[in-house]
Specification:
Blueprint lengths: L4 E5 L7 H12 L6 E5 L5 H13 L5 H18 L6 H16 L8 H9 L1 H16 L5 E2 L19 H16 L4 E4 L2 E3 L5 E3 L5 H12 L3 E6 L20 E3 H9 L10 H7 L3 E5 L8 E4 L9 E15 L7 H13 L4 E6 L3 E7 L4 H9 L3 E15 L3 H6 L4 E8 L3 E8 L3
Parallel strand pairs: 1-2, 1-7, 2-4, 3-4, 7-9, 8-10
Antiparallel strand pairs: 5-6, 9-10, 11-13, 11-14, 12-13, 14-16, 15-16
Helix pairs in contact: 2-3, 2-5, 3-4, 4-6, 7-8, 8-10, 9-10
């Protein structure tokens, strides 16, 4: 029997009716049994749902935002389906369920669990629309709720996979279906042992594809993007980018660790452990080769630039004239762990600890509150973290012109700088 193939389509590849039609065209001559399709929420739906949650948390009216989001999905359906199609009442029903969740009380204490109950509606809506459209194009396909497959712990918003139970679910529930038909499911979402919805971390649909691949002993995973493959820099921010024809797992993992947005950082490990190759291809040019990530790729050490925006630099200075010791570092990291904050850069001096973290709703406030008794704390928001792998010194300086550099450090193969645009 042929091994399962897994295709993952992100938000940009299902952002409107023409994108969904393009997805169908990509699948038309490729779709067969033992095929899993993983889809993200449409366009910027996740961002819009996060905005609704923020408004609710602040006791502000979110009805307009909800109406806009509903109209967005119904407008896409109107272009794809005839009047009276079954998809329209299904979309209506999803928004009834969404509003039922939004009518429940929210607070800072239950925000993460509340977030996971609400945010997955984006993937549920998207997967239903795409499945119904594929069926309307005579591409017979089954819909699968990913929450019945991906079993996790209860660490809401950053749930950890229960690999043994997830593999069992995939082998007993999903595999028999794949012998008959292709299956379409959602990225990003799972459920804990009590059946409560969980999420795998922002942009986690790539990770879902890797989880399913490892659990099904798949032959390959293909991620479809709006770029030609894995580039040495994000073309939205940098010119003259170069395409990697291939990467080994370690090189790809290093890029994702520092924030390369083309692949979710948790994606590589399960694929490398299972020996499953990962292809990154363009949905705009589906017949091009893209990038292959596998075990035996030849390394090409060209400068690779990763830019993370919306960063916060926080410095913790001791107040009693002692030097920084392991106890202080441990204290800071315990609070970061409790708040599920990942450190993107760390620098320790004689009397201070400086960290760079992603901006997350009310997390900085809690961090400062929990550590203010032990440290003098200063912070800067709205920063960028620039990371250059295999940096060229001359080229590096060009990325710093016109910026204030608040912090920088370099190792043998990596240069990092926290920068802020100089206002003219």
């Amino acid at each position: 029997m042929t091994k399962t193939q897994i295709y993952k389509f992100g938000g940009a590849s299902v952002k409107d009716a023409s994108a969904v039609q393009n997805l169908a065209d990509i699948l038309r001559n490729r779709l067969r049994n033992n095929f899993v399709i993983v889809v993200s929420a449409m366009g910027k739906t996740t961002n819009q749902l996060e905005n609704i949650l923020t408004l609710k948390l602040e006791n502000l009216d979110y009805s307009k935002n909800s109406s806009i989001l509903k109209s967005y999905h119904l407008d896409i359906c109107s272009e794809l389906f005839p009047d009276g199609h079954v998809i329209f009442p299904k979309i209506e029903n999803y928004f009834i369920l969404l509003h039922h969740e939004l009518n429940k009380p929210i607070s800072k204490d239950n925000y993460d669990e509340y977030y996971d109950r609400v945010i997955g509606f984006g993937e549920l809506l998207s997967s239903r629309i795409v499945m119904e459209y594929l069926c309307s194009q005579n591409l017979l396909i089954l819909w699968q709720d990913a929450r019945e497959l991906i079993r996790t712990d209860s660490d809401f918003r950053f749930a950890k996979v229960d690999w043994e139970k997830t593999r069992w679910n995939c082998q007993t529930q999903l595999k028999p279906k794949l012998e008959q038909f292709p299956v379409l499911t959602q990225g990003f979402i799972g459920a804990d042992s009590a059946g409560r919805p969980t999420t795998l971390g922002r942009e986690g649909s790539d990770f879902t594809a890797a989880i399913l691949a490892a659990s099904l002993d798949a032959g390959s995973v293909t991620i479809w993007k709006d770029v030609p493959g894995v580039l040495n820099a994000d073309p939205k921010f940098f010119e003259d980018t170069k395409l990697f024809a291939e990467l080994d797992y370690q090189q790809a993992a290093q890029m994702t660790y520092y924030g390369a947005s083309v692949i979710h950082p948790k994606t590589i490990k399960p694929l490398a452990n299972a020996g499953v190759p990962l292809f990154v291809k363009s949905f705009l040019n589906p017949d091009s080769d893209g990038t292959k990530i596998h075990k035996s790729a030849v390394q090409i050490n060209i400068p690779t630039v990763v830019l993370k925006q919306n960063q916060i630099l926080v410095s913790f200075k001791v107040t009693d004239f002692h030097f920084i010791e392991e106890d202080q570092i441990h204290e800071v990291y315990e609070q970061l762990k409790a708040l599920k904050l990942r450190v993107n850069m760390l620098q320790v001096s004689a009397i201070s600890i400086s960290i760079v973290i992603d901006a997350q709703l009310f997390k900085l406030e809690k961090l400062l509150q929990n550590l203010q008794a032990s440290f003098e704390i200063r912070y800067n928001e709205g920063l960028e973290l620039l990371t250059i792998l295999h940096a060229d010194p001359v080229q590096t300086q060009s990325y710093l012109r016109g910026y204030d550099v608040l912090l920088n450090q370099s190792t043998r193969n990596t240069f990092q700088a926290v920068r802020r645009k100089i206002m003219s």
